[in-house]
Amino acid sequence: MKLSIAIAVLMLVFAAHTEAQEAEKTIEEHFTTFSNQMKDLSEDLTVKTKDIVEKIGDSEFITKTRTWFTEQFDKMKAKIDETFPKQ
């Protein structure tokens, strides 16, 4: 009787130990998981950043500002050429 109880207890301990070993991840698996998460995060941030930059570049304010600076620069170049003509 005692022997059969001892064998049953040992089998339960062995089964619990085996399941515990299967459930634990190795360091390599942890690094792989972490690497995949970082890759997904960086890809997501890249896409979001590109979208924001495109929206900013296409905005009416930026377009008008760029045009204004171009006009001012052209006026300044013309004034310099007029003041200091090339010989």
Automatic annotation (TrEMBL):
Family the UniProt entry places it in: Belongs to the apolipoprotein C1 family.
Keyword Isomerase assigned: no
Protein location: Secreted
Organism: Oncorhynchus kisutch (Coho salmon)
Predominant cellular place of this UniProt entry's protein: secreted
Pfam families from the UniProt entry: ApoC-I
GO MF: fatty acid binding; phospholipase inhibitor activity
GO biological process, one term: negative regulation of lipid catabolic process
Protein's gene: LOC109906723
Name of the molecule in the record: Apolipoprotein C-I
CC annotations in GO: high-density lipoprotein particle; very-low-density lipoprotein particle
